[in-house]
Amino acid sequence: MSHHLVEAVALRHVYPDGTQALEGVSFRITHGESVAIVGANGAGKSTLLQHLNGHLAPTSGEVRIGETPVTRATLDSIRRTVGVVFQDPDDQLFMPTVGDDVAFGPLNLGLSAADADKRVDAALERVGALALKHRPPYRLSGGEKRRVAIAAVLSMAPDILVLDEPTAGLDPRARRQIITLLGEFSHTRIFATHDLDMVLELCPRTIVMHGGRVTADGPTADIFRDDALLASCGLERPLSMQACPVCSGLLARPTPHVHDHDHAHAHSHDHRSRLAPPR
Q1: CB burial class (10 A; 0-12, 13-18, 19+) of residue 91?
Q2: Helix (H) and strand (E) counts for the chain?
Q3: pLDDT digits (tens, 9 = 90+) for 73-94
Q4: Which of 41, 135, 157, 278 is the most exposed place for a label (fewest CB within 10 A)?
């Protein structure tokens, strides 16, 4: 599959209960791009991701990886190229040990046990989880499960990495570890996420979805400055782009003739008072 392109053409999906999740979604992602798919709950993000390696079949329209359409007949080759990490790691971790889970994909690709074990060690080492190899998945923390789920996909050496909410439910340290890890993947990356600060850090391009449609597709910084667009799609700017209410004058404060030192002290105290836990 040359160039490892990901293309959706007029993609439409209707669930058996009549819910129309995707309505004519089209885009083209080229080799090496890092692209975020964002939108409020129910926008169609997860449904879209499940079409990229054939977990769902379109009602109409088409997904192509390279020049190959995603069909039942091409699933084996597609899934060697597109690795998907689901939102809930428990959907991917079902074997007795972490090592067994990470070996599952390579073994199903036809690798020998010895070669699969080399893939397992390399993938776990890459995500900083080699020490977990012989642990049962149910004894892992949320962050550990996420890293192992990513390792299980990396062990299959995909050229396209697709992740659904990769930082959801993680504590700050685990979130930072996952972001650092994802930043090191050199091929095509596609993230569906609510973590817009992660998007700002990892994805030069963002696709905004609303009501099963693509409403915007362009440079991430430009999209995140468009407050009208974000509001219309149930989103707001990443926290790192939101202005301080004191400095921007959005928060009325009766502080006439405040000196610079006093303003800095008030500013610092205001942020601490909003961020510090109640005593």
Answers
A1: exposed
A2: 10, 10
A3: 999 889 889 999 988 888 889 9
A4: 278
The token pair at 194 is: 């609510």
Q: Which two tokens stand for residue 265?
A: 């002290």
Residue in 230, 90, 240 with CA at minimum distance from that of residue 152: 90
Helices (H), 89-209: 98-108, 113-126, 142-154, 172-183, 196-202
Q: How far apart are CA 214 and CA 194, in angstroms?
A: 16
- Reported in sequence order, the residue ranges of the chain that DSSP labels E, i.e. its strands, are 6-14, 20-29, 34-38, 60-65, 68-69, 82-85, 160-164, 188-192, 205-210, 213-219
Write out the two tokens for 174: 């685990």
Residue listed under structure tokens 């949320």: 142
pTM of the model: 0.82
Which tokens belong to 214? 């693509």
Buried b (16+ CB within 10 A) or exposed e, 177-216: bbbebbeebebbbbbbbebbbbbbbbbebbbbbbebebeb
The helix or strand, by DSSP H or E, that contains position 220, with its residue range, turns out to be helix 220-224
Does CATH number 3.10.350.10 belong to domain 2-242? no
- Alpha-carbon torsion 158, 161, 167, 169, what sign? negative
